[in-house]
Design brief:
Elements: H1 2-13, H2 20-36, H3 41-56, H4 63-78, H5 82-96, H6 103-115, H7 118-129, H8 133-148, H9 154-162, H10 170-177, H11 180-190, E1 200-203, H12 209-212, E2 221-227, E3 241-246, E4 253-256, E5 260-262
Antiparallel strand pairs: 1-2, 1-5, 2-3, 3-4
Helix pairs in contact: 1-2, 1-3, 4-5, 8-9, 8-11
C-alpha cells in the first residue's frame, strides 16, 4: 500500500494546479499516511479522485497568461509581497486546471501587475534612496508606540526596530507614521522638554495616579532625573516621559509631562 500511494502523493503535490486549501488537504493526508503507513478507504478515494481529475484536465493552457503569472510571481517574491505570493499561485492552479479567471480575479491581477510594474519599482527604488535619517527616526518612534499598543502594524513595527536598514514602502510608511495617532506621539517625543534634569516638579491636581503610581503622595514634589526616560506610548498631548524621584521615595517613577508642573524648592 505504501509503495502504491507515495508516488501518487509525489505526483499530486508536484502539480502547480494544486493550491490553497486543496494543497493543504493533500499535505494533511500525506502527513497522516507517513505516520500510520495507511489511509482509510474514504481518504484513499479522495486522493484517487484528485489524481483522476488532474489527469483529465486539459493539457493545453493559455501560454501567454501562464507566462504573465510566472513573471508576476517572480516580481512579487522579490518584493516580498506575501499576499500576492499566495494569490498568484492560486490563479495559476486554476488556469492549469482549465478554469477561466473571473472578472474580479482579472481586475485584481491587473492591480498587482501595476503594483509590480517597472515604473512602480522605479518609484520604490527612488523612495528607498531618499529615505532620510529623520524619516527613520520617526519610523522608530511610531514603531515603539505600536509595539506598546498592539495589534496594529505589529510585523512592520518589529522590522523597524530589529533592522536599522529596513525601508518600508511609501504606502506602509504613510499609513504607520503619518496617521493622526502616530503624528501626535512623534510630536510629543521630538518636542523640547519643559523640565530639565535637576528641575523641581510637582504633580498636577488632575494627575492620573494609576499611571504615576499610587505610592506617590498627591501633594508630592520631586526632582527630575531624566527627560525622555521612556518611549512615548500615548497619543495624548504632553506625553513625553520623565523619570522623577519624589521626595520621601527611594525609587523613581515614570511620569508623563502632562501630569507635572513646576514645583517649589
Amino acid at each position: 500500500m505504501a509503495r502504491r500511494l507515495q508516488p501518487i502523493f509525489d505526483s499530486i503535490l508536484a502539480d502547480a494546479r494544486i493550491t490553497g486549501s486543496e494543497r493543504f488537504f493533500v499535505e494533511s493526508l500525506q502527513s497522516h499516511f507517513r505516520g500510520r503507513k495507511s489511509l482509510t478507504a474514504g481518504r484513499r478515494r479522495c486522493l484517487r479522485e484528485i489524481e483522476d481529475r488532474l489527469k483529465a484536465a486539459p493539457a493545453a493552457v493559455d501560454a501567454t497568461l501562464d507566462s504573465r503569472l510566472s513573471d508576476l510571481l517572480s516580481r512579487a517574491t522579490t518584493a516580498a509581497d506575501r499576499w500576492a505570493m499566495d494569490f498568484i499561485p492560486s490563479l495559476r492552479g486554476q488556469l492549469l486546471a482549465g478554469r477561466d479567471l473571473s472578472a474580479r480575479q482579472v481586475e485584481i491581477l491587473a492591480k498587482i501587475e501595476a503594483r509590480h510594474s517597472d515604473k512602480a519599482q522605479a518609484v520604490r527604488d527612488s523612495w528607498a534612496s531618499s529615505f532620510t535619517s529623520e524619516m527613520r527616526a520617526k519610523l522608530v518612534i511610531a514603531a515603539r508606540y505600536y509595539l506598546a499598543n498592539p495589534p496594529y502594524f505589529g510585523d512592520l513595527a518589529q522590522k523597524a526596530i530589529d533592522d536599522d536598514s529596513f525601508v518600508p514602502t511609501k504606502r506602509a510608511y504613510e499609513k504607520m507614521v503619518e496617521n493622526k495617532y502616530a503624528t501626535k506621539v512623534i510630536e510629543s517625543t521630538l518636542s523640547k522638554a519643559k523640565f530639565n534634569p535637576g528641575s523641581h516638579v510637582a504633580l498636577r491636581a488632575n494627575a492620573n495616579f494609576r499611571a504615576v503610581g499610587y505610592a506617590v503622595p498627591r501633594t508630592g514634589t520631586g526632582v527630575v532625573l531624566k527627560a525622555d526616560a521612556k518611549p512615548v506610548t500615548s497619543p495624548a498631548r504632553g506625553s513625553k516621559v520623565y523619570s522623577v524621584l519624589f521626595f520621601g521615595q527611594t525609587t523613581p517613577n515614570f511620569v508623563e509631562e502632562r501630569w507635572l508642573k513646576k514645583g517649589k524648592r
